[in-house]
Amino acid sequence: MDSYSLLYSSSHRTGLLSGFQRLRTQRSMCDVVLEAGGVPFPCHRALLASSSEYFWALFGETTAERLAGSISLPVLTPEGLDAILDFLYSGWLSLSPPTLPVVLEAARYLQVETAVSICERFMTDGLNADNCCCYANLAELHALADTLEAANQTVAIEMGTLLQESRDDLLRLNIQSLMAVLDADEIPGVKEMELVKLALDWLNENGPLPLLKSNLLLSRLRFGLVAPGDLANLSHAHKAMGTPLIRSQLTRALEYHRMGPAQPISQSKQTTLRSTPNRVLLVGGGSSPDWPEQQMMAFDPSSRKFSSLSSSIPLRVRNHCVCSAGGFLFVIGGEEVKEGDEDGKKSVTVGTSNQVWRYDPRFDSWEEVESMLEKRAQFTCCVVEDAIYVIGGRHKQPDANTYTSLASVEFYDMATGAWRRGATMPCPLYGHASAVLDSSIYVSGGLPGNQGGSNHVDNQDDHRESSKEVLFWDLKSRVWEKRAPMSIARFSHRLATAHGYIYALLGMYEPFCDIEQYDSQSDHWTRLRPLLIGSFNYGMVSTPSGNLLVFGGRRWSDGQEVVVRSVLEYDTKKDRWREICQLPRPLTGTECTLLPLPD
Q: Is residue 56 a part of any domain in this protein?
């Protein structure tokens, strides 16, 4: 059998289309005329049938149009038909924002799916605030699911601009897109009441709608984010707001506002901010360890940018604790620093506090909640289920330069808004750290007081050795248990949980820069990659990805303490440190937590 070769010419197909295009231009050998809007388009039946499902069916053996010399397409415009015919004959599709609707309509009607895909890509790639509403309506009309989703997302992200500059475009938006936008978890810079007004204006512009549709639309609003004073008036704002379903949602929102301390554990989609989740909130601290600031900063890990919050902490505190629960921030205890005036001279007084303040980012408001049973500074706190636990610490004796260290534990029951006693630690402890793993609390390091669980009076300059010990409490028992000690004694350090492990970071005045990892299954600590330069009194948080972020702090330089601006990231999976950015100003003594914040 003789061998043979099969060769392919890439230029043949191009030449074939060029030949057809030349014949069409010369109106040579055309065997059918398409007509749209009174404009004739001589074409070749074979090319149309081979390029379009519509023409393949139209020119079938049993159709009346099989031998027709002229075919009218009244639903198409001449511009749209001309663009699609040019595409079929050349492979090039001419598109612009003004011609897109008629070209897409022709491509859809004639079932030229390749041209439809090009239109989809053109729309998706060009989405912006000026065209997102128009493109959303086009995508919905022609059932372009991916483009519709992208357009709806753009409308949500650009809502602030659209409300100010293109409100009419929003009022012409199709109902499916408007419902999708009102379902969005991120609508930056827009208050919920503005969305309520938009929805009611849209109903006035496009209504009346059937009861089911208006309920579907309005039920996507988050009435828990509307101030109580505005909620009371909404039921009379529009006929659609008076339906049983919407009235029940308004009632639940008012009940939520009356829950007081139970609000953090009563969260639902109706009360969740439409914002980037889990930005890092830096609370307190300052350029000097002795004079903390009341300003709060937010850090966006994705953009690595800082922003200052308009609200500030009610007290000037240091050695405090912060935590977040249900989208609320809690600032607990610490040492309140006040500026006084004695005999005409300015002075600074420091007193230990048991006050607890709660910040609601939904309404940018502070509220003082029930105070702790004891005053505490240099303690630790953590959230387990529906309670905030505070552990150990110390407080300054009134009118004296001595401190009492604490072994006591108490927890704030958010269901009742009351503080209750927990299991007392074996000995007083301050400057320790805590972490939560599998709903159990681990406490490590710190400076211990006397044994026996009673409080311990010590001097400010007491230099007892810090501890390596690790204590464990599963909350079901009434006692603390010991676990494997750390390899390094630590004081004023940090613990963090990531990927099922506990990480211990640097404390104050440690001679080395080692960190270590605790495996609760094997009850074993492992040394990890150290920092290149040690620091202390920094802020630290564990991100949802499991990486640890370290903000500012102090370190030794030429025999002096220097406040730094560095922001370090520790990759827990790769055991790698790197500096990712810098703080706007030197910062030490800040406390960090993750909190969703309005953009």
A: no
